[in-house]
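Ticket #4471: structure output looks truncated?

Reporter: J.K.
Steps to reproduce: submitted the chain below (517 residues) through the standard prediction queue, then opened the result file.
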Amino acid sequence: MQPPPNMTALRTVAVRRLLALQDDHQLTRPRITGVADAFGVDPRTVDRWLANARANNGIYTPTARQRFELNAVMLDAVARWRGNVTAAWRELQADHEPGDPPLPSLPTFHKAANRALSPGLRAGLRHGEKARRSYDVGGKRQRHHRNYAWETDHVEASVKITIGGHTRKPWITFFVDCATCAICGFAITPQRPSREAVLVAIRDAVLIDEHHGPFGGIPDRVRVDGGKEFLCTTVGEALGALGTERIALPPYTPEGKPTVEAVNGAIKKTLFAGMPGYTHAPTLHGGKPVDPDQPLIHFEAFVARVREWVHWWNHEHTIKDLDHQTPAQAWNNDTALIETITAEALHTYTLERHGKPLTINNSGVRWHKSDYIADWMHGFVGEKVTLRYLPHHDHRVELYDPRTGHHLGPAFMANQATPQQIRDLKRAQRREADRLRARLKKAEKNRRIRYAAATEPQHPTPLVALPEDQALQHLRDLDGFNLQAEALPDFIPLPTPADEWTRPLNTPPHHPGQDPT
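Returned output as attached by the reporter:
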């Protein structure tokens, strides 16, 4: 076996040093033994190194031992037999021609195959890529702080449940914080998840309130796999509006998101394995289930069980890599600031946007061959609106002002509107008509000229009320003018009260000759 380059260099230096000591007549047996112990060889092997250097003008030149190696044809035979070295050796023996080089013995062939193929390659030839990946070295990322990075993934529940009379296996979409292993949000769908489930899970993960718990906020980055529902434009726009970087990992690289993969594996072992309808339960002879008639739980009960498990994971389950803390304890001990967002703004960001503005017409807003109506649309026919919607939920859309982005309100599909929505629409229509009628009546009333009453024949005098600012200015112009005399030109002073009359407090007594006014 050829020594590695670094070991060869060290061996060359040691041999050169021993030759120098030998030239100075200082080489002793203990020195040779010390070098042998350092390299883990017998002292006689060091003697052979010295002999090799003397034969090559004082330069140690290692020689590779001659041994059998597999060629391309032999490696192809091993691969063709799925890593079965013995079967490949038999095939080569059967196809051996008299003029071909002789094949070695089976043990030698096995040793050559082990040198040519790593354990990972041999496992891959036997069981495929998944088996080979178990021999890869992935390393471990630094945890950083909470909301520094999230990981997301789908997991198919290993449980059969009942949905609308049919048996299905639901899917769960998790968003997990890498620093604390806390499950910030999740979404459950009866079928394989789409971008709708991803958007719902993002809202559940980001919001922090009494319904969503203390875990959440806006993450700096989110690692996703190559699924099209994670890489779609809608999810990219939603994360981009939050200022979150989306990191797309190469396909089939679970080692790139180990935190969420650990959650996926844990829920299979600690929840699904104890539920009825577990698909990996032990079976009888022939693959028959032990209890084929066991009752399956409904979708609502399954969601409740998953919510209970998530609470257990976050608040009760301790993790060794977190110094035996629960995710909740690790989250609360983290001092990193949490950036939040309101539910209204998040609702807008996590909806898919229609490309161009639409027009409100007399039948509502036309989109995807359907009309959408709302009670607030009365009076806005002809106006442009921007439409946003949740994928696969076309019964309701959200409309916004295309200039300011202001949320105008929801709109519902006309042929699926509930009786209450129809009543609200008609009530809003009547309310809009009453508002117009009241404004027209007020305008006509203000348009009429009113005249002052008269007792003698004279030209009609219009009654024109001054505005408040003009009336105040008129009073200022009259400042210093005797308004009392102007208002009461025929004012006659009252007689002087008698001295025995009771006067109000703080009123000085009247003296004869004093004007009582």
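Triage note (M.O.): checked the attachment and the full token line is present. The two ends are 133 Å apart (CA to CA).
Status: closed, working as intended.
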